[in-house]
Amino acid sequence: MAADGPFRFICTHASLALCTLINAHDNSKPDGKVNSSNSNSSSSSGGAMSLVTAIGIFPVCSARAVLVANTIVFQLASALANVVAAAMLVVVLANVRTKYTAVARQEMLDLFALCLALTLVSLVIDTGLVPAAGGWQRAYIYGVALQLALQSACCWCLMFNGIVVFQLWEDGTCKSVWTLRGSCALMALTTFLVVALTFDAGVISSTLPLFILVFVANALYLVIYATSQIVLTVFILEDMWVLGATLLGAAVFVVGQTALYGLSRMICVLARHFLDGLFVASLCNMFALIMVYKYWDMITTEDLEFSVNNRETSPWESKSTIERAYDQGNSLPLMQVRPEDNLGVVSATNSQAGFKRPLHIDFQSDSSLYHPGPLSSQFRPPY
Questions:
Q1: How far is CA 350 from CA 293, 317, 327, 353, in A?
Q2: 371 belongs to a structural domain
Q3: pLDDT in tens, 279-329
Q4: Domain that holds residue 257
Q5: Residues 19/43, Cβ–Cβ less than 8 Å
Q6: From 276's CA, which of 51, 60, 292, 311 has a CA 20 to 30 Å away?
Q7: Is there a domain that residue 324 lies in?
Q8: In Å, how far are 117, 322, 361 from 354, measured between CA atoms?
Q9: Phi, psi at residue 113, to the nearest 5°?
Q10: How far apart are CA 211 and CA 107, in angstroms?
């Protein structure tokens, strides 16, 4: 597939898995063998050099590969960032699950589950565990298609969650949840098919539809989400702390994208090829997801009446035990006060009366209980 203008600029600045597929289809013969006539050609875009080969476009400066257990691993620093992001998303999912009464709880669970799946797929694709050439070329194409499909689904799901907090429809219902899941599946399937038809089947002869789906549409979804949350916090919630969380997350995300597409070569040179802009973008994306969760946590309050204690010793355990015993007609412990105790020890004794006999406490009048004598000298204050 010939490298169109937008992808030529992107691939000369960023080390993306998608760029490996650019030019691969047009430079392949009908028998599937790659024609290497253009394998050593190079081009420049905006002063940034790139290597245009038969299997894709590569930036001149990218993170060096590392040999681990006879396996070449690319983007090792970015892989470590993805591992940390995956662990962070697991913690976020666990925290979201405990907020039983929060707004759009199920929708947020779907969002972070999609982000976790995207992180794991990116960990496999970006590190080169699936080779881009040879007998694994078709598997690599579908792996990149899955990565881009999950990326589109995540951006769409984020926009959906940004709209559902306005309570235009009831959140958490089957209609809301399955509308979200169905639309995310539709977006993911559309992107997956466009990638497959472009690089595998060759039905689509231009990469422009793919550029619109992957970059233009996803950027539009993110802008809609950020705008909707700013409107919500300024005109409805009127909470500047919440607005600060939104603006901070958006700013960090923009910094990450700028580092990926504009400063990747400079970062690579300064870091001596140990990392590039993809590592910075991975860290910024992780922080942006943390701020999305933090923002959602700040605008939702948990109803303590319906809160659930996840500890083993639940405060409602005694109540449920008494109710079960009462339904079975068993003897229950009743709290009784012995006559010789002046509001002293309360003893629990078994009685066959169950709940039929009310609890009665005999308060004996003792003036010493209500009119204590003067304090002893050892308890008197020093003044």
A1: 51, 20, 17, 9
A2: no
A3: 999 999 999 999 999 999 998 865 544 555 555 545 555 556 666 665 666
A4: 4-26+54-305
A5: no
A6: 292
A7: no
A8: 55, 10, 17
A9: -65, -40
A10: 28
Q: Are the beta carbons of 263 and 271 closer than 8 angstroms?
A: no
Name 57's bridge partners: 52
Residues 113, 175: contact at Cβ < 8 Å? no
Q: Is residue 96 part of a domain?
A: yes
**CA–CA dist 346, 86 (Å, integer):** 53
- Tokens for 182, please give them: 């169905």
How far apart are the C-alpha atoms of 348 and 337, rounded to whole Å? Answer: 9
The per-residue pLDDT for range 85-137, each reduced to its tens digit, is 999 999 999 999 998 888 889 999 999 999 999 999 999 999 988 887 777 88
Asked if 39 contacts 45 with a C-beta cutoff of 8 angstroms, the reply is: no
Helix ranges (DSSP H) in 232-365 = 240-261, 264-270, 277-299, 317-328
Whole-number Cα distances in Å, 62 to 16, 79, 240, 382: 10, 14, 40, 76
Per the domain annotation, does 215 fall within a domain?
A: yes
